[in-house]
Amino acid sequence: MTTYHFPDQFWWGTAASGPQTEGRTVGDGKGENIWDYWYEVEPEKFFQQVGPEKTSQVYTKYKEDVLLMKQTGHNTFRTSIQWSRLFPNGTGKVNQQAVTFYRAYFTELLEQGIEPFINLYHFDMPLDLQKQGGWLSRQTVDAYVNYAKPCFDLFGDLVKTWFTHNEPIVPVEGGYLYQFHYPNHINLREAIQVAFHENLASAKAIKAYHATKQEGEIGIILNLTPSYPRDENNSEDVKAARIADAFFNRSFLDPAVKGEFPQDLVAIVKELDMMPKMEEGDLATIKENTIDLLGINYYQPRRIKAKETPIDHQNGPMPEDYFDYYEMPNKKMNVYRGWEIYEKGIYDILTNTRENYGNIKCYISENGMGVEGEERFVNSEGVIEDDYRIEFVKEHLKYVHQAIQEGTNCVGYHMWTCMDNWSWTNAYKNRYGLIAVDLEQDGKRTIKKSGHWFKKIAIENGFET
Ligand code: GAL
């Protein structure tokens, strides 16, 4: 029997986001964001045409939900403030109802012994700002800082752990390269500008937070997808994997932790003549305002080989001009999501932060398994027996444990997600929660087997196998 015991005060919990859970109610004062809008104009793009207003209704059910969090062992929980709820137009006057809601929600969490971690941006650009270019526009950087500052003032007495962005590479990929977020452009020049503005906005928000002198920490949450070459002894494969790593991981990881963009990426961008527009002082702002804490989302690795297929010039330059994706035979798959399951990836990321990023304080901010049709696994007591999820978490936690044993400064593990929630264009297709949400029965909640199991490991601060 092996015991996997985690350090004292380890953060056990889950992550969610405002736009995926809160829902909308008439008269709540929330403004439109790009998801509300996109669903309005192209509902067919969303799985079974379920839109963001139908999310798990946390706006009205948060008290019940916080109790369920307690019953599933949470000592910490991350969600996000919806920018378009606090500032319906992205800028201007605060929506007081939003302040009341978030204060009540965060207070409820604290009263149940669950520390709220709050993220400021989870893919949810207010529509009015998107109309002016969204992250493409410099004005959005200013608007974002003008949104972040009041958040620190309004909620800083309740919230001690802040994040500037969740997975900032995803709006770049989805909105400006691969068409799964509004505005669905394919344009590398724009993608680079968006990434630059997000990095700059993050540094400026960090600066603003530190200037408040509040006793707390601020970080960023990155989805780090380790890039593995097809053949480690083939220098062309290794080089290709390194470039993919620069585009998708180090483009945010390096500025966030080291305050600098990776040289190999900068060289490529210069070569393409696609350097983003910046102002004097921007690079110094990024250099001087790095994160206190790194959140790591891990779902899947990226398998890469040297470019073998012809470059597709249809949409101008793309990251894939520099590498090909490698279909590794016999990989373990989560067939529902189409994602590879590679548990050791989590260890490799944590080792990388220790060896190459000053062993920065970090935690696993998302890890989890989306499964379609979980109703199949309901037992006679109405509980979903999601043993595959327990297995998934356990196997990842073993590697987290190993990295900690070797000295990585990893202080917690959050799953995605607490309750089944609305997952962008996939809507409710794949369920990730420790708690089931029955949309047919007004969102009735039932703890899954994994939720009961999670409580046990959280209370015991580990597990045995
Ligand atoms: C992450 C994202 C979450 C959630 C999850 C599962 O990339 O941060 O918002 O959608 O994927 O698909």
UniProtKB/TrEMBL annotation:
<protein>
    <submittedName>
        <fullName>6-phospho-beta-glucosidase</fullName>
    </submittedName>
</protein>
<dbReference type="InterPro" id="IPR018120">
    <property type="entry name" value="Glyco_hydro_1_AS"/>
</dbReference>
<comment type="similarity">
    <text>Belongs to the glycosyl hydrolase 1 family.</text>
</comment>
<dbReference type="GO" id="GO:0008422">
    <property type="term" value="F:beta-glucosidase activity"/>
</dbReference>
<keyword id="KW-0326">Glycosidase</keyword>
<dbReference type="GO" id="GO:0016052">
    <property type="term" value="P:carbohydrate catabolic process"/>
</dbReference>
<feature type="active site" description="Nucleophile">
    <location>
        <position position="366"/>
    </location>
</feature>
<dbReference type="Pfam" id="PF00232">
    <property type="entry name" value="Glyco_hydro_1"/>
</dbReference>
<dbReference type="InterPro" id="IPR017853">
    <property type="entry name" value="GH"/>
</dbReference>
<dbReference type="GO" id="GO:0005829">
    <property type="term" value="C:cytosol"/>
</dbReference>
<dbReference type="InterPro" id="IPR001360">
    <property type="entry name" value="Glyco_hydro_1"/>
</dbReference>
<keyword id="KW-0378">Hydrolase</keyword>
